[in-house]
């Protein structure tokens, strides 16, 4: 690993100023960045550690909107009473990310800014139609995810918080890789007054909405509404773990499980 400068600012403004420097990268939980640096796949000139910025952490709800700071850890989302009350499916998702070490180091904002094709949070953010707040602007979830490891964030722009509208019902189901716990396929469903949103992760190069499923579930939000549903495997991921046809099949299976979970009474 090559040498680099290291700063640990206490404010968002200071972090943004440091990130304006050439070759500077933000360090959130470090679950992806540090391993890629060790493998020499990434070689930043400077790391801007965000862990001391209090304004980037925290969870708040007003009954209609759930706001989570970008530096809030997965473990904190998973055990938050406010998240469990507002969007229990989001709390359960967070509690099943990776392993305890990942959940206690990884952050919401780090996961979203990285946009791994098999990450869990992007499915929740997209299905819930969340708003991503940055140091410069607000970005709708439908405009945020651009492709594999690519987002709408511009150089030096810092993700500060995510605002989730509270749905009538929502849940997530995934078929996890047995070692990494990343999703071979994960499906998040969210029911709102205007209809149902469905987002799929792990199946393609980036998270995406499944509009045919949304149409079915908007008419009948029930597991049986997904019966017989098939996805065109063209364009889906193919690797040593699963072929496109299998991932296409899993989308329907995970969607049925997610809807069934969303309809269960809150515990």
TrEMBL record:
Keyword annotations from UniProtKB, A to Z: FAD, Flavoprotein, Oxidoreductase
Instruction: Name a GO molecular-function annotation.
Output: FAD binding
* Name of the molecule in the record: Carbon-monoxide dehydrogenase medium subunit
Q: Which InterPro entries match?
A: CO_DH_flav_C, CO_DH_flav_C_dom_sf, Diverse_Substr_Oxidored, FAD-bd_PCMH, FAD-bd_PCMH-like_sf, FAD-bd_PCMH_sub1, FAD-bd_PCMH_sub2, Mopterin_DH_FAD-bd
Q: Which residues form the FAD-binding PCMH-type domain?
A: 1-169
Organism of origin: Enhydrobacter aerosaccus
Q: Which PANTHER family match?
A: XANTHINE DEHYDROGENASE SUBUNIT C-RELATED
Q: Which domain of life is it from?
A: Bacteria
């Amino acid at each position: 690993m090559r040498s680099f400068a290291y700063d640990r600012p206490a404010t968002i403004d200071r972090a943004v100023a440091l990130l304006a420097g050439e070759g500077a990268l933000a360090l959130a939980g470090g679950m992806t960045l540090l391993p890629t640096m060790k493998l020499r796949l990434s070689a930043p000139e400077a790391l801007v550690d965000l862990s001391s910025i209090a304004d980037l952490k925290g969870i708040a709800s007003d009954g209609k909107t759930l706001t989570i700071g970008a530096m809030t850890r997965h473990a904190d989302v998973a055990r938050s009473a406010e998240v469990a009350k507002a969007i229990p499916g989001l709390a359960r998702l967070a509690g099943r990310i990776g392993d305890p070490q990942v959940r206690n180091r990884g952050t919401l904002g780090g996961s979203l800014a990285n946009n791994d094709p098999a990450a869990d949070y992007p499915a929740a953010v997209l299905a819930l139609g969340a708003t991503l707040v940055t140091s410069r602007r607000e970005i709708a979830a439908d405009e945020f995810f651009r492709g594999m490891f690519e987002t709408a964030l511009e150089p030096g722009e810092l993700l500060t918080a995510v605002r989730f509208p509270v749905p009538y019902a929502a849940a997530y189901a995934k078929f996890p890789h047995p070692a990494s716990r990343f999703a071979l396929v994960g499906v998040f469903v969210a029911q709102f007054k205007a209809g149902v949103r469905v987002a799929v992760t792990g199946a393609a190069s980036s998270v995406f909405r499944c509009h045919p499923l949304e149409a079915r579930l908007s008419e009948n939000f029930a597991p049986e509404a997904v019966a017989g549903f098939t996805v065109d495997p063209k364009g889906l991921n193919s690797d040593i773990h699963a072929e496109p046809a299998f991932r296409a099949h899993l989308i329907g299976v995970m969607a049925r499980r997610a809807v069934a979970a969303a309809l269960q009474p809150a515990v």
